[in-house]
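Entry, Tuesday afternoon. Goal for today is a structural model of the target with zinc ion bound, before we commit to ordering more compound. Inputs were pasted exactly as handed over by J.K., no edits. I checked the ligand SMILES twice against the vendor sheet because last time a stereocentre got dropped in transcription.
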Amino acid sequence: MNSLSIENLDSEMETNCPVCESKNTKIVQKILDFPHFPQMWFYNLSCSDCHFKYNDFINLAINEPTRYTYLAENKDDYTSKIIRSSNGTIRFPNIGAILEPGPKADGFITNIEGMLRDFQGKAEFLLRDATTEEEIIRINEFIKMIDEYINGNLPIEIVIEDPFGNSSLIPFDQSKLKKQRLSNKEAEKLKTGLMIFEDAQNTSS
Ligand SMILES: [Zn+2]
């Protein structure tokens, strides 16, 4: 890896919006220095006309299918940061919650509590469309369970998998973080998001 090219990535430039083609569109690229993850490239595109936004993270130090596993057991652990790239899959096996990349997936940073709140918000959204009593009970139980986990800082395992190694966990306690290389078979099973920019290039050329 050439360090000069990394420094050059820290930049701002203008481009065309992949949605409305407006030229009032900016790309900001930065190298973020997280502890234990020094070469995290952050990429943000935003269009001031149609308000389309796209974020992503690329870990310049890792380029292989990777799984991080962490057991959050206390309030501090719950503050561990999650860096989710557009291809990251996030699972909480204890509560059966999973976030897989869909066609509009993009990158974000949150922490374990924030991720659980996000799942709770999605469940509340599902509740609006729930029709059977069984479904309503099941979703309400899930919402209540997340409150119990967050309020009590109950032990919960988080698993982050990424076929390109771009998603990461910045743990409160580094000694508890498990990192594994995924086998090719495991990596192939992971869903990947649609690369919006590849599509945009294809349609404009
Ligand atoms: Zn636009």
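The radius of gyration is 19 Å.
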